[in-house]
């Protein structure tokens, strides 16, 4: 079993959806990812918070076995995000973003963190993602995520990063924007030509697509009656996926990757059942395995639909 290093944001989120709202709740890509990945392997977080970051949140993460030795506290306020979801929960409206101490975040890896065998470079400036990767000592697997802002503002840096990673996560709109392709399959093919051997395109309530070994594997979302808050679902998906991959010790086996897609899908489905990290922070492995069995039973065929990559 390998350990995972995640470098990303730690935030206080205020979110309103048709199902209710939360204020100053625990959030951030590194937080959601680590709470998911810790189900499978040890996780270390590198991130920054302000002096106002609640100690209860820090204790919560530590109590879940997450290594916070790379957790830096700086004078100033913690990164905050304020968002709203309407009836279409796939469309988040950002009301306010206060970067605060995150604005000056420059990740510096300790000797222990630089030797991590598996790394996830969460959604931050691709130039910073590249700086983190340059500090690492021959990791076996590196994955990254991005967002529309970086695709628009730093496309060259992002493409340079993609030439150095093995796994890339993106949502459908981002993938099509990055590649200027009309559909997710052609977008995934274009991204794979830049470097990543595995491309995962998240489609929200419509599931996810994985391109691996020149094949596509299509996974539906787990059906839910109620979705309270989709914030962090993509990061917990990535956490479940990467956590399982790290626990297997081999990201080249397609069967392992397909199982990783199942775990990512299932843990993301738990995340959206409540606000913030409330649902995922108390998940136990037996709940995950039970829902995985349910998910596989619900599939129309015994395995995910496969199509040959064009």
What would the keywords be for this entry?
310 residues; alpha/beta; disordered C terminus
Please give the radius of gyration in angstroms.
18 Å
Count of distinct strands: 14
Within the CATH hierarchy, at the fold level, what is the topology?
UDP-N-acetylmuramoyl-L-alanine:D-glutamate ligase
Spans where pLDDT lies below 50 across 5 or more residues: 304-310
Instruction: Please work out how many helical segments DSSP would assign.
Output: 12
Structural domain tally: 1
If strands are numbered along the chain, what order do they take across the biggest sheet? 5-4-1-8-9-10-11-12-13-14
Strand content: 25-35%
* Sequence of secondary-structure elements: EEEHEHEEEHEHEHHEHHEEEHHHHE
The helix/strand class is alpha/beta
Strand count, sense and closure of the main sheet? 10 strands, mixed
Helix content: 25-40%
Highest CATH level, the class: Alpha Beta
CATH homologous superfamily title: Ribokinase
In one word, what is the shape?
A: globular
User: Which architecture name does CATH use?
Assistant: 3-Layer(aba) Sandwich
Mean pLDDT: 94
Kindly report how far apart the N and C termini lie.
35 Å
Question: What's the quick description here?
Answer:
The protein is α/β, with parallel strands linked by helices. The chain has helices at 29-37, 55-63, 111-114, 126-135, 148-153, 155-162, 172-179, 184-194, 233-248, 254-271, 278-281, 285-298, and strands at residues 4-7, 11-17, 20-27, 43-50, 67-74, 80-85, 92-98, 118-121, 141-144, 167-171, 198-202, 208-212, 215-219, 305-308.
């Amino acid at each position: 079993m390998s350990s995972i290093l995640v470098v990303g944001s730690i935030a206080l989120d205020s979110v309103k959806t048709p199902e209710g709202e939360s204020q100053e709740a625990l959030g951030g890509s590194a937080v959601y990812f680590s709470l998911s990945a810790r189900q499978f392997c040890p996780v270390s977080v590198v991130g920054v918070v302000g002096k106002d970051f609640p100690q209860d949140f820090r204790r919560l993460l530590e109590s879940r076995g997450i290594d916070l030795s790379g957790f830096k506290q700086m004078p100033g306020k913690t990164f905050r995000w304020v968002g709203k979801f309407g009836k279409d929960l796939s469309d988040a409206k950002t009301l306010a973003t206060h970067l605060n101490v995150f604005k000056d975040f420059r990740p510096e890896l300790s000797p222990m963190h630089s030797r991590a065998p598996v790394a996830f470079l969460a959604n931050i400036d691709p130039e910073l993602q590249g700086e983190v990767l340059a500090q690492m000592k021959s990791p076996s697997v590196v994955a990254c995520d991005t967002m529309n802002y970086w695709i628009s503002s730093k496309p060259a840096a992002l493409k340079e990063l993609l030439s150095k990673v093995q796994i890339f996560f993106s949502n459908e709109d981002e993938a099509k924007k990055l590649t200027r392709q009309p559909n997710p399959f052609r977008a995934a093919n274009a991204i794979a030509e830049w470097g990543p051997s595995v491309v995962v395109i998240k489609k929200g309530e419509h599931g996810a697509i994985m391109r691996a070994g020149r094949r596509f594997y299509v996974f539906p979302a787990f059906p839910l009656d109620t979705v309270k808050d989709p914030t962090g679902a993509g990061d917990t998906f990535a956490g479940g996926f990467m956590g399982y991959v790290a626990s297997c010790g081999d990201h080249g086996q397609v069967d392992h990757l397909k199982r990783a897609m199942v775990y990512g899908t299932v843990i993301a489905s738990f995340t959206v059942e409540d606000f913030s990290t409330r649902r995922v922070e108390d998940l136990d492995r037996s709940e995950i395995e039970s829902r995985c069995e349910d998910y596989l039973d619900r599939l129309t065929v015994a395995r995910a639909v496969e199509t040959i990559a064009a």
